[in-house]
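Hi everyone,

Forwarding the result from last night's run.
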Amino acid sequence: MELDQSFSPDARAEASERVDELLADAEALAPLDFYLKLASIVALADNSHSNITTSPIYEFGVLPIRTVWFSDGLYIVRARTEHERLLGVHHGGTD
C-alpha cells in the first residue's frame, strides 16, 4: 500500500487497519473469505487500477456470474444457465 498513491489519507488509514485485522484473523478464515476481505480492502483505493487478480475466485468456483464495472456501477454481464435471470442486474456502486 505504501507504493500505491491512489489511496486517500483516510482510505489508507482504514485499509491499514483492515489489513491488520485480516492478518490477525487469517488462520481462522476460509480461503474465499480471506480473498474477499482482501479485495474489499483494495477497493478502498476507489479506482479501477488498484486490484488483485480474479483467478482465485474462479478457482473457488463459487461465482456463477461475471460482473463488469461501468461508469454507473457494477452489472452482471454473464451468468450460467441456471442464473440467467440475474443478467443485467445493476449495483449502483459504493457512493
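Residues 1-61 form one domain.

Cheers,
N.
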